[in-house]
Design brief:
- It is a single chain.
- A hairpin with a 2-residue loop joins strand 10 and strand 11.
- By secondary structure, this protein is α/β, with parallel strands linked by helices.
- The strands form 4 sheets. It has a 7-stranded mixed sheet, with helices on both faces. It has a 3-stranded antiparallel sheet with strand order 12-13-14.
- It folds into 2 domains: 242 residues, Aspartate Aminotransferase, domain 2 (3-Layer(aba) Sandwich), CATH 3.40.640.10; 138 residues, Aspartate Aminotransferase, domain 1 (Alpha-Beta Complex), CATH 3.90.1150.
- The two termini are 24 Å apart.
- It binds pyridoxal-5'-phosphate.
- InterPro entries: DegT/StrS_aminotransferase, PyrdxlP-dep_Trfase, PyrdxlP-dep_Trfase_major, PyrdxlP-dep_Trfase_small.
- Belongs to the DegT/DnrJ/EryC1 family.
- Pfam families: DegT_DnrJ_EryC1.
Length: 389
């Protein structure tokens, strides 16, 4: 059996090595390292893939979120509602811009921001909602867009874990995640579903004016060379990363299908085991019933495959898996509202019942495009033996 890895970047690279190596060498040969044609080509191809008017490449997913918020003109003191159960980058940029983060609880089945909790948290100072499509499954965008419209709020989708996934609305229309809110961000960190070989990110929007504003912000606030109209940042995707992303983008659906296939196999082996709750694909109106993973749409792209283990010591299970040579992860072990940097007297533990429970139960298994049946069998059997011992 091949050594099991949390993410097998090497195996994936080897399948496309010729194309990647040639295009990287071409960029080096061209010396168009910054703002070269490959960045523009990638931008156009990603716009077509997502069916969105504007993709603005930038240096990483954290910058993308920050720049999206700067582009919307949010001001210190504006309240921005986001999930308590996510990667810290989401709340970090809110705080950095001196906006007020308002963390709310998530849904137990999807791990995504709870629309009822959003409603409860809205005040006259609320300006935006940041749903995170956590682990690759879209948040409830029907409810979130309705709340935003009712209260005149911006929706900024953090699509770092969701690229390539689709959302089906209650009225039957579908849209890719990252194209639904006013503006969205994604990350091309190597382990993401569409990853480059370094850092990278992008902002998406259908709003022409906002796209123009953001294109200036990523480039030192310049709209005309050496004229600085607003305070900007320096955040660029470099040409080598762009050419790697161009080589990988045509495979994104294939990669996401491979992830879904692995998730289906994990589910099949684990769903009947007492004390294990396999990830729920809520389907978001796509016709999927819970516990099945759709063949026909991309409603979950399994950035992570995350189990909940109950009446079991999760940390002992993780240690056991590691002993057997199986890497695993706990995303996330501490709720953001309990992190030293983001604690706030306004928070009431009662309002974070789900997150407080999930952090004790979740464990993410190896998930990538190269998992084979032997590896999945070994992983699932090791878990079953530990749980039923
Ligand atoms: C990875 C990630 C980010 C940050 O992306 P970077 O490219 O690492 O800056 C932001 N939000 C979420 C939910 C992520 O998973």
């Amino acid at each position: 059996m091949k050594k099991i890895q949390m993410v097998d970047l090497k195996g994936q690279y080897e399948r496309i090595k010729d194309r990647i190596d040639a295009s990287v060498l071409d960029v080096i040969d061209s010396t168009a390292f910054i703002n070269g044609p490959e960045v523009h080509n990638f931008q156009k191809e990603l716009e077509a893939y997502l069916d969105i008017k504007h993709v603005i490449p930038c240096a990483n997913g954290t910058d993308a979120l920050q720049i999206a918020m700067m582009g919307l003109g949010l001001k210190p003191g504006d309240e921005v509602i986001t999930a308590d159960f996510t990667f810290a980058a989401t709340v970090e940029v809110i705080a950095l811009l001196q906006l007020t983060p308002v963390l709310v609880d998530v849904e137990q089945d999807s791990f995504n921001i709870d629309p009822d909790a959003i409603r409860k948290a809205i005040t006259p100072n609320t300006k935006a909602i940041v749903p995170v499509h956590l682990f690759g499954q879209a948040a409830n965008m029907d409810a979130i867009m309705a709340i935003a419209e009712e209260h005149d709020l911006y929706v900024i989708e953090d699509n770092a874990q969701g690229i390539g996934s689709s959302y089906k609305f209650a009225d039957g229309k579908t849209a890719k995640t990252g194209t639904i809110g006013h503006v969205s961000s994604t990350s091309f960190f190597p382990s993401k579903n569409l990853g480059c070989y370094g850092d990278g990110g992008a902002i998406f929007t259908n709003d022409d004016e906002l796209a123009h504003t953001i294109r200036g912000i990523v480039n030192h606030g310049m709209y005309k060379r050496y004229h600085h109209d607003v305070v900007g940042v320096n955040s660029r995707l470099d040409s080598i990363q762009a050419t790697i992303l161009r080589a990988k983008l045509p495979n994104l659906d294939i990669y996401n299908n491979a992830r879904r296939e692995a998730a289906r196999k994990y589910n099949k082996a684990l769903e009947s085991i007492t004390n294990i709750i396999t990830p729920k694909v809520k389907g978001n109106n796509c016709g999927t019933t819970e516990d099945t993973i759709c063949d026909t749409c991309n409603c979950h792209v399994f950035h992570q495959y995350t189990l909940r283990v109950i009446n079991t010591d999760r940390d002992q299970l993780a240690a056991h898996l590691n002993e057997k040579g199986i890497p695993c992860g706990v995303y996330y072990p501490i709720p953001l509202h309990s992190q030293k940097a983001y604690r706030d007297d306004r928070y009431d533990e009662e309002d974070f019942m789900v997150t407080n429970q999930l952090i004790k139960e979740v464990i993410s298994l190896p998930m990538h495009t190269e998992l084979d049946d032997d590896q999945i069998d070994f992983i699932t059997n090791t878990i079953i033996n530990f749980i039923t011992k």
